[in-house]
Amino acid sequence: MRRADRLFRIVRILRGGRLQTARMLAEKLQVSDRTIYRDVRDLQTSGMPIEGEAGVGYTLRRDLDLPPLMFTRDELTALVLGARLVQAWGGATSMAAAGQALQRIEAVLPPELRERLDSILMYAPGYSMTQPLRERLDLLHEACIDRHALAFGYTREDGQTSEREARPLALYFWTGVWTLATWCEMRKDFRVFRIDRMQNVQVLDREFVQKKGQRLEDFVREATKNFTP
Predict the structure, then answer these.
(1) DSSP label at 69?
(2) CA separation for the pair 193, 213 (Å, rounded)
(3) CA angle centred on 185, ends 181 and 188, rounded to 5°
(4) pLDDT tens-place string over residues 60-97
(5) Which helix (H) or strand (E) holds 106?
(6) Within 10 Å of residue 137's Cβ, how many Cβ atoms?
(7) 68 DSSP assignment
(8) 129, 88 contact by CB (below 8 A)
(9) In 10 A of CB 74, how many CB atoms?
């Protein structure tokens, strides 16, 4: 958990009004007592009205009132729909983060907007996104970011199989299907692979440097040039 997230959660827990010892906070956040002491001290130094002391417990002064998070109805609808899409079609990490983001938004919304949150009737079922596929999506995304080459087996729509090594460039979502844009080292050209047809994906230790003609911007240029509406 990032430190900023941990500090936010400490404030949320203390807003509940009950006295919280460092040990109780540490167990909830899965950190050491020493970390809690340091975090609380930093929050107090920054002006957060946390009362109490080490060995006794902490609480948040009741006159603290955080300003409500304000969105228009259309903005709130867009945020919730986006989070639901990520929950339905994102990787395992993104799915969990989207759920946490919705909880954070709901926690600080004024009552009238909280009611609006419950009445948004736009959903994105993602039944085809199995847990292994979500984990593969996370793995491929990290490989794109870290610029690590991949080795994998691939099955085409006609059933033909092949073994590939490729440089992952970016992931694209098309009408319910995730695809990986790559520079294929076997074909010496850009290739796009459906991630649900990839098998035995291995992230190689070999890093790659994006070369002119093999970069993501080159792929986008080629794809745009060949696209006919």
Answers:
(1) P
(2) 19
(3) 90
(4) 876 555 555 567 888 888 988 999 999 999 999 999 88
(5) helix 92-108
(6) 24
(7) P
(8) yes
(9) 8
